[in-house]
Design a protein that fits this description.
single chain, 32 helices, about 725 residues, disordered C terminus, disordered N terminus, 5-stranded mixed sheet
Length: about 725
Amino acid sequence: MAQGGQNMPLEVQHIRKALLKEFGQRISMEDFVKKDPKERETALLSRAVSAKAARILTDCTSDEAAAGVIDGRDDFGIDCVAFSASGSEIYLIQAKWKDKGTAGFDTEAALKLVHGLKKLDNRDLDHFNERLQLLSDRVHGVLQLPTCKVNLVIALMGDGRLSQETRDILDEAAREFGGLGRTVAYRVVNQADFHRAIREDLEPQPITLKATMNREWYARETPFRAVIGEVSADQLARWYGGKGEGHGERLYDRNVRRSLGLTGVNQTMVDSMLEDPEGFLYRHNGITVQCDDIVQEYPFKRAVGQPTILTLTNASVVNGAQTVTSAFRAYEKDADAVAEAYVMVRVISLVGTPEGFGRSITKATNTQNHMERRDFIAIDPVQGEIQKDFRISLDKEYVFRRGELDPAPESGCSVTEAATALACMHRDSSLAVRVKGSTNALWSEGPNGAYIRLFGQQPSGQQIWRAVQVLRLVRDELTKTRAKLTGRPAAIADSGALLVAHLVFQRIGRDRFEESDGDWEGVLAEIPGQVSQVLAALISMVDALFTPKSFVTSTFANEERCARLVSAVLGTLERGVGPDSPMNLAALLKVAGQTRQRRPQTVRLLVDHDVIEEGTRLEYAPSAAEELAIGAWLNADPRRRRASWVNDRKTPLLWEADGKRYSPTGLVSQMWNEADWKEQWSAVQGPKQWRVPGEGTLVEIAERLWQRIVAWEEPEEGDHLS
């Protein structure tokens, strides 16, 4: 099968991969056996688009949708035929596929589709191909109904916009063929609809749980619906592993982690249920279940204190995974004893609750077993989105809940490995230093926390997977090289492993991780050589900058020292190893003196070196939170997002909205105040929020300049941004 086009947009790549996986072996392509592979794939994708549209509109199975594909010779403009579950509607689908997501539907295509409808309406089926003949009885059955509905469907790998002329043709067909109880309508299924559908296919099916509270229970309706009461532990066990109804680890999909196995705490719970089931309620904190809806029934009398049966739709155990799993283990040993143990269960309906309420409850209630900071990332929606991206884009697994088994190396990665790789890839070497101390540093929250810096702007599955590949190769190569070293060089290879990875990432360049059409295999092939060069320079630099008597371990635990090492090593490797290279001791010491400089404040550095040309336009680059808070105010006057540069240390930004000059931070603060953003942050980082189009933010431009300065590559006169 031919590969997708290199310039294919990411969303189209996702759809292509999903369609081929779902319909590649289901849709007949016998008429394309002798055709060019690329031509065959395009035809298959077009047919798959029509089948997917049938699934979206009728909720039929993949096999049923594929059986309805009639595209080919003598299809008369109809690529797929589908039927409603009630049997009173028929869908006539015409599909168009374009690799770049630009498929359209013109008047000629509309006329062909209407012509096909006319032939079916006239019961003129003899001239259709064999695939339609197989469906003729069902087609006849629907069309002869006095109240049938015919749906003309345009399925496009594009935005789905139709010209007025095309709409007129379809409207006229609706008027001509409708009437006397029969209706004809048309609709478009576009690229966004297909992408949404394939993402929904990855969502697990909702879980419905039954819970009987025979003894004490209490219900409240305001401000949100909740029922709290005692549930026998054998019910919890059956939730997890009952015959035909057990849901296993899926019970915890909205929890911060999976069950942790047979820990000491969990073994104690198992023993407690078996040895003293009646006393278990008094020794246990209870569990929390979130659900969409609670349906309450009363087998005897509708009153508090009487038994009640709860049906919980789209339910998840958000606190108590260890308890439920322990109940199942105890149940396997002695079901009768577990039936005598009761657990306090709190059921909360999320209907009508504010955004984030469910996540806040999950986070607040998880305190019974020891919690790690990384546990709470499991309720961050970003991690779920990355998991979907891995499955759609890469056909690989990404696990982020503690307790889940890591996938095989070739099959995917864990969030810990991903975060470590992203930390090494980050421009700031301090992240790699922190990770070396403890992976807990990866999950620190807050504006400057590592987690926000790594995942605040969701990285793509491709970026993460490529970063993981590089980190793995660096570690493998260091392991081989380390075996050949002794003494101080060996200690540097051990303690500086993540800094070596950071340096390799910087030399590769961030762009290479995002390119969909680059020679990535070529990049990976260069990793062993990169590691060799970086390690040699690093070993030399440690002694040159901090003397051969410095402590290796403490050097690589010091963020400032590591930043100096990174700057010096990158400068060394950029200039090569000739006679003037800092690889010579005298030159190394000279560089060491320079790298002790601190980078000046951003605006001062840019103005003093005349990097940005006077009058250059800048754009405001708000964070997602800012855009949500003041986006409407910004959009009300486009000038509010623009400023021009003035080479002045104090007030370099001339705001288009009022013609006054500000510092970058002062202008952001002024904008927040004018927009009346009451929840605005106390800290403002203006240089990070104003950017020169095509060049980056003021901070990024200053960083690039500073790297050139410390590497003795001061900008030539006249080297300005235009």
